[in-house]
Prior knowledge:
- 49% of the residues lie in helices and 0% in strands.
- The chain is mostly helical.
- The radius of gyration is 16 Å and the shape is elongated.
- The termini are far apart.
Amino acid sequence: MANAIALLVLIGVLAAAGGSVYKAKKHGRKCIGCPHAGECAARSCGCHQQQ
């Protein structure tokens, strides 16, 4: 029974993460993890180049 609950929790977490990625891509965000992704006019946000 504990294995079934753990499996359901894991499936729920993966579904939530997949839904978040789908929603971000649907809104046209290029870099999903970048906080400035919605503000960039270029093809890529360039967040990974700034250090």
